[in-house]
Amino acid sequence: MSLSRRAWLGGAGVALAAAGAAWADEPPLRDLAAAKGLRFGSAIGGRSFGDAQVRALVAAQCALVVPENELKWQALRPAPGVFAFDRADAILGWAAQTGLAVRGHNLFWTAPKWFPAWVNSYDFGSRPASEAERLIVEHVTTVVTRYGARIGSWDVVNEAIDPATGELRANAFTPYLGERCLDIAFHAARAAAPRAQMVYNDYMGWEAGNERHRAGVLRLLGRLKARGVPVDALGVQSHLGPGDLPTAPLDRAQPEAWRRFLGEATGMDLGLLVTEFDVDDRGVPGDVATRDAEVAAYAKAYLDLTLSFPQLRDVLCWGLDDRYSWLQSRSPRADGARKRGCPYGEDLRPKPLRAAMAEAFRAAPRR
Ligand code: 9MR
Question: Whose CA is nearest to atom 12 of ligand 1?
Answer without folding.
Answer: 68
